[in-house]
Each structure stands twice: as C-alpha cells, then as structure tokens.
Amino acid sequence: MRIGTVQHVVAFARQMGLLSKTGLSLTDLGTRFYQFAAQSPNLFPEATHHLLYTTHVLDKSKRFSWAYARVVDAWWTSSERTLDSEALAQMVGMVVEAASQEFSVPVEQIAFSRDSIRGILNWLRALDPPPVINHSKQECFRRRHFCPPFAFLWAIDFVYRTNNVPYGVRLFFTPDRLETLCKLCVLDPAGLENVLTMAKRTSDYQRGGIFDHGTQGGFGRWILLACPCPVPKCPGDNQQ
C-alpha cells in the first residue's frame, strides 16, 4: 500500500470516529468495528455504509457524511439512474451548490469532486445486494429490493433514536419514517414487506428476540425494537 493511500485511509478512519484524534489507537467505536469486520466480513460494508450515511445527523461537523447521504438520497429519489460521466458531473455540481448553501461556504472552497463520487460508489458496490450494477455495459444505480436483516435493524434503531422513541414502544410508520428507512437501506419500498418478514425471523420478539411488527386498525403499520441495536451490534451479542 502506498504512503498516500495509507494517509487517506487514516484520515477516513479518523473522520469516521474509528481512530483517535491523534495517533493510531482505535476508539471504542473503532474497536467494535474492527471486531465486527473479523466476525462478520460480509456485513462490514453494510455497517460502514450505515455509519457513513448517519454520522452527520448526530455530529454536524461530519460534512463528508452529509455529502454521502446527499448523494445516496438523490439517487434513491430517482429510483434508477444511469451513472455516466454527465450524471456524475451533475451530481458533483448539485452537492457543491447544496453544501455552499447548507454550510455558508463559498463554492470554490468546497472539496467535493468526481473522486468523492467514486469513493461513494465503491462503498455502494460493496453492499449485498448492490444498488450499483452494470446494465447493458453501463453502470447504473437501482434501488434494492432486499437488504440484510441486521442492516434493517440498525436502520430501525436509528429511527428510534432520531425520533426520541423509547425502546420497547411501538413506532408507527409515517411517510417520513418509511422514507428514512428505505433511503438508509437503499431499499425500494416494494421490498419492505419481505425485509420486515426476514427481520422478524432473525430476531423475533415473541421468541426472545428484539424485533416485531404488525398493523393496528386506524393507526396502520407499526414496528417495535425492544432494546438498542446500534451499528455494528447484532441481536444477541454482548456489545453495548
């Protein structure tokens, strides 16, 4: 690995809160991610995507996370999009302009480029199933119709925390909450029913797990998370 590459990896890990602000020691979060990567390497890209997408909500200084979420949200809203040179250039311009307004920073001072987009694409390609695929010899974005149950439970935990809903209390779907879940999981709403079923099978509240879902007349669909399940925790493990 080249020195330049190492420096980029270290800077990225520090921005993500995985490395201490000085030195190369892992933070508590970094230790959990390191252990998770060793135990569940197939889910590690999902955990990293979740962290990249959500970090800015809890820490406004993480502007790289804001940009990541902005790109994912824009592509999710389009449902399906060809990712040719023109589309990538348009995305760079959109993010730069939006960042300038959001953070009151002159456009020329915003460090976001096609290389930034390529980095985002690398993480999206690593998801399983991936929302970035090759179609007719052209790369394109397409919403997923399934995501791993653990990734969905992390997303539900995020919705609980950001809506200040106590664990163990039913959370009713609203259009905004449903959209948040689907965007975070890069999931097409048409695939939601299947993911709900798989999440219940993975950790059924009725059998000592942490997740349940159902419908209630007059209120619609509800979900229930019995206890915290923050990324990269999995139901049943002993992480805090």
Explain how this protein is built.
- The chain is mainly α.
- It contains 9 helices and 6 strands; from the N terminus they run ααααβααββαβααββ.
- The protein has helices spanning 3-15, 28-39, 44-58, 63-78, 85-103, 114-125, 149-162, 175-184, 192-202; strands at residues 80-82, 132-135, 138-142, 171-172, 211-216, 220-225.
- A 3-stranded antiparallel β-sheet has the order 1-3-2.
- A hairpin with a 3-residue loop joins strand 5 and strand 6.
- Helix 3 crosses helix 4 and helix 7 crosses helix 9 (192-202).
Oligomer classification: single chain
Q: How widely separated are the two ends?
A: 34 Å
Domains, number: 3
Using only CA atoms, what is the Rg? 18 Å
Order of helices and strands: HHHHEHHEEHEHHEE
Uncertain runs = none
List keywords for this structure.
three-stranded antiparallel β-sheet, mainly alpha, 240 residues
Could you outline the blueprint of secondary structure elements for this entry?
Blueprint: H1 3-15, H2 28-39, H3 44-58, H4 63-78, E1 80-82, H5 85-103, H6 114-125, E2 132-135, E3 138-142, H7 149-162, E4 171-172, H8 175-184, H9 192-202, E5 211-216, E6 220-225
Antiparallel strand pairs: 1-3, 2-3, 4-6, 5-6
Helix pairs in contact: 3-4, 3-7, 7-8, 7-9
